[in-house]
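Re-run with default settings, no changes from the original entry. Doing this only to confirm the output is reproducible before filing.
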Amino acid sequence: MLLSYYQELALETDVTFKTDKGVKLPLLGLFGEAGSLLSALKKHLREKEGFVTYKAVIKEELGDCLWYLANVCSRYDIDFDELGVEIVKNKMASLHEGDIRAPTMDELQALAKATTMISESTFETDLFQLGAVAGRLLYASQENNELNIRDSLRDMLWAISKAAVNSNISLLDAAESNLAKNKSRWPGEEKIYLKLFDEGCHEEECLPRKFDITFVEYARGDRTFVIQRCNGINIGDRLTDNKIDPDDYRFHDVFHLAYAAHLGWSPVLRALFKVKRKSNRAVDEAQDGARAIIIEEGISTWVFGRALELDSYEKLDYVEYSLLKALKDFVSGFEVDKCPLWQWEKAILDGFRVFRELKKYRCGIVVVDLVNHTLEFRKLDENS
């Protein structure tokens, strides 16, 4: 992969570029990722083998550094390939005459490997150099010194390449993983839902494709609870907030409906509707069993707690990336892990949109459509 091609792909997932072509955001992001690499190193030196995800973290952070570096270059109108050529000229001047073609990412790393063997640099020294160059870049940007900015960007690309060598990580793999991660979060206009997980199963083992659930709040003595009805039949347990300070968690089943609509996944609803995939023992146990149900309930509780600090996403049209990333880690090994981050974001935002309606009216009908991936709230008639 040519550096310039990667630069084009990175810019496609830079959602801020359309509205803000300034350099501040990606520059701060680049500085932050350099700090994250140093933080990971610190944690590894402190915890040693206890930091079991160390290499995976380093690979992700190197990819993030490269992404921010590419987008900083785009904002300064600097071609990534040109920086690669400058590096080759500086490191291999005695071996090249005339024009030098732009190196691929693999070729740049091969050059870093060859020179690293000579210089005997270490991953630790590479990261310190990366941090130092990031500091110089920030200073140069404040001074608006174009020459120093370009030199710093080139030096940072070289430091990232050497760090990849000394951590035994393919720079190309880190770049491609980063692009896939960002595409999962920001797919642009190409939002294509995955097919439903029970597609092709027997009808009695499929989540209903369209249904509605009626939520009704009741008070009995000093207790307030919510029941759900489907086709006139009460389903599930009576739900309270299970908390001293009320927070309306009693309406939280709406989140399971949102997971079904936008992820095609809800072990909780499968259990309620008795549509577990019993004909496939492995799927029944691993995907529809008690552990999967606990995972889903845990996600609902955890996200709800985070959302309380954000007014249930009333004024936001996005979900913070750190939460989405943590969710992906949480469901690792389960079928829903295949769903991209944007589907999770849709499920969370849509779920809380309807939750706010239920909280406002204290009852209502939620219409769920798994085919069109929608949730619709309807107020109850007075006679309902």
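The chain has two domains: 3-185, 203-378. The chain has 14 helices and five strands.
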